[in-house]
């Protein structure tokens, strides 16, 4: 559950945010929402896949593990990849709308909130700190990125470039594991597109994002290796 409220420098003057990484602050998650604008950065570390969203469309995810509550990039208070998705980085802040105006909200139920440690949000005279300005920029980038993702998803559906997949894995301990419920790029259908369709995808900026998704799939090997190491450490 979450409890988002409009952030302001009166009610939240003393609020601080713990920016360390760790399960105690909500980082033990299997995936995070992402968008084409950050595919180039994230594809170096995480598999990027798609799933059906609540509105019946599709959304992109960076995968951190194989089951709910599992983040194989989390080692105590260390995030093992140098780049963290913006939708993780922005916690505990959200964007809310007041008509056409976008407003910053904060989740009062977030374990990252504190009055005694972490980054302050407001200066003594009421202005915003550099940290809050960075979060404002991150929220804006997420908003713009998710808006742009609609066209990307629309193009994938138009050309029928999404296909469901199942990943069956036998780990070093002999256990069988299955990852299901996600979608990826249909490579054969992509290869069969004619020049005009590829040119349209390129002009719209979608073709590069498609290839970033395909490149990211090699990171499943990284996840499997990390899962084997974690299992071995438990024995």
Structure report:
The structure is a single chain. This protein is of the alpha+beta class. It is 33% helix and 26% strand. It has seven helices and 13 strands. The protein has helices at 39-42, 86-89, 130-158, 187-192, 195-203, 206-216, 220-234, and strands at 4-6, 16-17, 31-34, 48-52, 58-63, 74-75, 78-79, 93-98, 101-107, 113-114, 119-120, 162-170, 176-185. The strands form five sheets. A three-stranded antiparallel beta sheet has the order 1-9-8, covered by helices on one side. The longest helix has 29 residues, at 130-158. The chain is globular and about 60 Å long. The model has no long low-confidence stretch (mean pLDDT 95).
Q: Stretches where pLDDT falls below 50 for ≥5 residues?
A: none
Question: Within the largest sheet, what's the order of strands?
Answer: 1-9-8
Oligomer: single chain
Mean pLDDT level: 95
Secondary structure tally, helices: 7
Compute the CA-based radius of gyration: 20 Å
Number of beta-strand segments: 13
Compressed to H and E, one letter per element, the order equals EEEHEEEEHEEEEHEEHHHH
Q: Assign an overall shape.
A: globular
Structural class: alpha+beta
Please indicate the percent range of residues in DSSP E strands (runs of 2 or more): 25-35%
Helix content: 25-40%
N-to-C CA distance = 34 Å
Largest sheet: 3 strands, antiparallel
